[in-house]
Design a protein that fits this description.
The protein is mainly β. The chain is 11% helix and 54% strand. The protein has an 8-stranded antiparallel barrel with strand order 1-2-3-4-5-9-10-14. A two-stranded antiparallel sheet has the order 6-7. A hairpin with an 8-residue loop joins strand 3 and strand 4. It is elongated, with a radius of gyration of 29 Å. The chain starts with a helix and ends with a strand.
Length: 289
């Protein structure tokens, strides 16, 4: 009896060791994150699309390799494991983009078919900041994750236009690129863009300052396919407020004697949403250190 009890106690005492051993790699490395680990995560979906197109000879059109969601694109996710099952979670994006398009149009003063250039310059600023708490539970490589986070989003947008044909007393209606003909993206390359003779044309379009704020609870899963490397997905629910302030459009025109500049205000916009989200179907690839 004594031997049986001793063997039973030994099995009970060694059971946690066997359980822990099942969460080690063949090289003895821990598979799950541990207290005081840090992680960085990005959306893996664009890479999956790229790999799929590579194997099926498709065309990869998604150049936004680090998109996170339609509401918070190109956001990097970081975590700090306070304990084995609790993490502080942060998100950050500081983005600035500048794009330029040229359009060749006839020179109004040339009799030899000479061309001049109209130009459009676009600048965008996008900042996303987020912070929250995440908890996890589960056994083995598959963990459930849940928690709460807050998000802040700041945006701005401006279009600037310059024209090859000057507006003067001798050319009060110069040939200019139609403001609605300029492309919406760099992938739209068909040229020349439509142009016509105008006595008024836009020189600047500036949106108002954008501000968004949201709070969301989230629930999802995270699977560790290698030591401290995982794929995760989640759903969330909560309110989101988006506001874009009053913008303005600047025009130049010929009034019969000179070129004048006028400014037209654009209205404000605001949105309030409370709904379920799935962060645009993102599958987050995370690395823990």
């Amino acid at each position: 009896m004594k031997k049986i009890l001793t063997a039973a106690v030994a099995i009970i005492l060694t059971f946690p060791a066997f359980a822990q051993e099942s969460l080690l790699s063949k090289k003895g490395l821990p598979i799950l994150p541990q207290a005081h680990d840090w992680s960085i995560g990005i959306d893996a979906v664009p890479f999956i699309h790229y790999a799929g197109n590579f194997f099926n000879n498709g065309v990869q059109t998604d150049k936004n390799y680090f998109s996170f969601s339609d509401r918070h694109p190109m956001t990097i996710i970081g975590k700090y494991m306070k304990t084995d099952n609790k993490a502080y979670r942060g998100k950050i994006r500081i983005g600035y983009a500048s794009r330029k398009w040229n359009n060749y149009i006839p020179d109004d003063l040339s009799t030899t078919g000479r061309m001049v250039i109209d130009e459009k310059n676009t600048t965008d600023m996008n900042i996303t900041l987020g912070a929250g708490l995440e908890w996890r539970r589960g056994k083995g490589r598959l963990n459930g994750i849940y928690g709460l986070e807050a998000l802040v989003k700041l945006t701005s947008h401006k279009d600037s236009y310059s024209y090859g044909n000057e507006m003067t007393s001798s050319n009060s209606s110069p040939t200019s690129t139609d403001s609605t003909a300029w492309p919406a993206s760099l992938n739209q390359t068909s040229q020349p863009y439509a142009s016509n003779q105008v006595n008024s044309r836009i020189t600047e379009n500036k949106d108002g300052f954008g501000f968004g704020f949201g709070i969301r609870g989230f629930l999802g899963v995270e699977y560790f396919f290698a030591p401290k490397m995982s794929l995760s997905g989640e759903f969330g629910w909560g309110p989101m407020i988006d506001n874009i302030g009053e913008g303005e459009n600047t025009y130049q025109a010929w009034n019969g004697t000179e070129v004048t500049s006028s400014v037209r205000k654009t209205g404000k916009t605001s949105n309030f949403i409370i709904d379920t989200d799935n962060v645009d179907g993102a599958i987050v690839l995370s690395f823990y250190f």
